[in-house]
Amino acid sequence: MAGLEIPTWDPETALLIGAILVEAFVLYVGYAGLERLVGPALMRLLVGGDASAR
């Protein structure tokens, strides 16, 4: 039957998909940390006042 076959992946493809997922996770965590460190100061600079009071 068409469409019901189980795909076979070579190890290179699985490694590439794994590397992309790890990179996405690292970027997600990294940008979240950067936002926590720099975000309030940047908001005070751009908007003025205290960004945490909103």
From TrEMBL:
Keywords: Membrane, Transmembrane, Transmembrane helix. The chain crosses the membrane at residues 14-34. InterPro entries: DUF7512. It comes from the Archaea. This is Uncharacterized protein. It comes from Halorubrum salinarum.
